[in-house]
Amino acid sequence: MECKLRTTVIAVVVGASMLLSGCAATQSSSENVTGQMIVAPVMPDYKMEVTLAKLNEILATMELTDEQRARFHYDRGVIYDSVGLRLLGRIDFHQAIKLQPDLADAYNFLGIYYTQEGEFDSAYEAFDGVLELSPGYDYAYLNRGIALYYGERFQLAVEDMQAFLARDPSDGYRVLWLYLMSSAVDKNQALADLALQRQQLKSEDWASVLVDFYLGKINQEQVFAAAKVGLSQPKEYAERLCEAYFYLAKQAAANGQYQQAANFYRLTLATNIYDFVEHRYARIELAKMKNIIQQAAELSNKG
């Protein structure tokens, strides 16, 4: 099974996942608009609302140890995060750490939030804390690497992503992020490395389709066509489009197609797949595109 780059934990919520008996199907619809595939935003599962109500009741009425209360705050924070309520999630993660200072999972989330807000030094500190508490926490390397990437410390970002990829060379998403970070250092070498790393991937994996796009083996239309193939549940199509829009946008931006990139980032955000890495950082990327487009327009007006 492919490993989607959700920035939660490897074994997602413990308490909350026990309360959730399963994943309800979420209907989505697609249509073709000006040659681009779009998808109806995924709406929150009603079972999430039920789980939140149960967690609220537990935290308000039950006698719990500090460790138990910390875990329930953490579990509730994960659910808040998954439906886009970052402020409420952040409050719960802080509360969890106050009750259980060695809760690495909560530091990981706070580091992600710091990255999204451009508070890079705080993000580095949070992820360093995660790895100090739990040296085997793979996704801290991904998340710290992303923080370093957006903080424009590219070589350090590459080193973290190399460590992350080494733990699973068959994961196409790890390959993609290493390529994005390496491109900021040496694009030609990054592309050569990508071609070699592609040999470790399974051709039937969706992530391999995205890697093949970067290698120039397939075009944009073929990426969208592949997104419909081999779906196991309705929400998966929206998840694939969230990823496709983001990586197509990154390539468009690299080619100087800033307006197209901005449009793809908007579509990434419109999927509402809040807990995917691609959705989390699409807003940062969109802001970059807006600045570039605005600067270009100002220069044109002056000319």
Layout of SSEs?
Layout lengths: L14 H5 L10 E4 L2 E4 L6 H16 L4 H17 L3 H14 L4 H13 L3 H14 L4 H13 L3 H13 L5 H12 L3 H12 L7 H9 L5 H7 L8 H20 L3 H13 L6 H26 L1
Antiparallel strand pairs: 1-2
Helix pairs in contact: 2-3, 3-4, 4-5, 5-6, 5-7, 6-7, 7-8, 8-9, 9-10, 9-11, 11-13, 13-14, 13-15, 14-15
List keywords for this structure.
303 residues, mainly alpha, 15 helices
| Helix content, binned percent | 55-70%
Largest sheet: 2 strands, antiparallel
Element pattern in H and E: HEEHHHHHHHHHHHHHH
Number of DSSP helical runs = 15
- Shape descriptor reads globular
Q: Beta-sheet strand percentage?
A: under 5%
The average pLDDT score comes to 88
Q: Taking Cα atoms only, what radius of gyration do you get, to the nearest Å?
A: 20 Å
Describe the protein.
This protein has 303 residues and is mainly alpha-helical. It is 67% helix and 3% strand. The chain has a two-stranded antiparallel ribbon with strand order 1-2. Helix 3 packs antiparallel against helix 4, helix 5 packs antiparallel against helix 6 and helix 14 (258-270) runs antiparallel to helix 15. It is globular.
